[in-house]
């Protein structure tokens, strides 16, 4: 990695950056981190990429490191995931020591502040003011819905160039326009004049937000917070996992009925009276327990063959099952 002032042909593309931010969103949802943690992580990532030339191969470590640093700043200590667990779930190839070294580099290059002002900070302030000024007379979207839209916007590099105060107001203004509320529109204009935001600037970011939301709400959008973890394993590992899955017998569900002590004693007496029959049960003869339908044969472990009800399963040395 080199500073941004140094000319270097390699670098992280916008698509690569956006993909990494989407993965951070998925990790945030998986570990139950707050929206503030995600926003702070994206803030650290974009600031670091703005001053450093980074090779794409280093981006996974940088992204996970930013999320880990943000979680330590925002979350309770007991809720912060261990570094090795974070690396394992992110399916990254770097080590814990690599993550610690990267954390040191980011801390040296950036002025890491626990309470950094972000677009989420303004969004929450605006929402609190709108709730107070409307006094329940107007129905406004929930803060959770607005936060989800903000996270979707942050997954696109273009929004990293917006001022936090402008982006938050553009997001609220675009959402309130759909409600067609004159009262809420007037409140937006008051904030715009107070913050000295020009009409052209606000309109520009409103259009970008609307375009992003159209894509986000489309059926083709694979939302990062709903993505499933996918593990890539070798063919041999997949075969072993499959054979182990089918070799485990299913156990019947134990009913949660009342325990009858007298029936338990009778059952124990019947089982003890079965002499050499380990499968003896009330009302069942010894010959029935050893009938062909319940025959069970076992052989040596080197080529173990089991037969039950006429079917046979041969367990090979590699752990594969052959029927």
Automatic annotation (TrEMBL):
Give a yes or no for keyword Manganese in this entry.
no
A Pfam family this chain is assigned to: Cyclin_N
Q: Which keywords are on file for this protein?
A: Cyclin
UniProt superkingdom: Eukaryota
Biased composition annotated in UniProt, kind: Acidic residues: 258-273
* InterPro entries assigned to the protein according to its UniProt record, in alphabetical order: Cyclin, Cyclin-like_dom, Cyclin-like_sf, Cyclin_N
List where Low complexity composition bias occurs: 309-323
Keyword Metal-binding recorded: no
Indicate what this protein is called per its UniProt record: Cyclin-like domain-containing protein
Organism the protein comes from:
Pleuronectes platessa
């Amino acid at each position: 990695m080199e500073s941004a002032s140094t000319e270097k042909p390699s670098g992280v593309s916008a698509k690569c950056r956006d993909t990494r931010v989407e993965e951070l969103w998925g990790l945030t949802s998986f570990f139950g981190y707050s929206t503030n943690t995600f926003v702070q992580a994206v803030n650290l990532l974009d600031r670091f990429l703005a001053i450093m030339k980074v090779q794409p191969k280093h981006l996974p470590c940088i992204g996970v490191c930013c999320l880990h640093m943000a979680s330590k700043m925002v979350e309770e200590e007991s809720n912060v995931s261990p570094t090795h667990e974070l690396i394992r779930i992110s399916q990254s190839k770097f080590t814990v020591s690599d993550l610690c070294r990267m954390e040191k580099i980011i801390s040296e290059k950036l002025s890491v502040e626990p309470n950094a002002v972000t677009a989420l900070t303004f969004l929450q302030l605006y929402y609190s003011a709108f709730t107070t000024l409307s006094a329940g007379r107007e129905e406004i979207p929930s803060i959770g819905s607005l936060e989800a839209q903000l996270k979707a916007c942050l997954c696109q590099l273009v929004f990293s160039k917006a001022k936090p105060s402008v982006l938050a107001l553009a997001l609220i203004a675009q959402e309130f326009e759909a409600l067609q509320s004159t009262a809420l529109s007037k409140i937006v204009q008051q904030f715009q004049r107070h913050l000295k935001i020009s009409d052209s600037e606000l309109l520009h970011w409103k259009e970008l937000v609307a375009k992003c939301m159209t894509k986000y709400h489309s059926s083709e959008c694979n939302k990062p917070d709903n993505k499933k973890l996918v593990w890539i394993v070798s063919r041999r590992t997949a075969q072993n996992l499959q054979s182990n899955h089918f070799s485990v017998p299913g156990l019947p569900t134990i009913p949660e009925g009342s325990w009858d002590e007298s029936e338990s004693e009778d059952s124990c007496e019947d089982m003890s009276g079965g002499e050499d029959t380990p499968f003896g049960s009330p009302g069942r003869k010894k010959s029935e327990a050893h009938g062909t339908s319940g025959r069970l044969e076992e052989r040596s472990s080197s080529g173990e063959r089991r037969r039950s009800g006429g079917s046979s399963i041969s367990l090979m040395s590699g752990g594969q099952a052959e029927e």
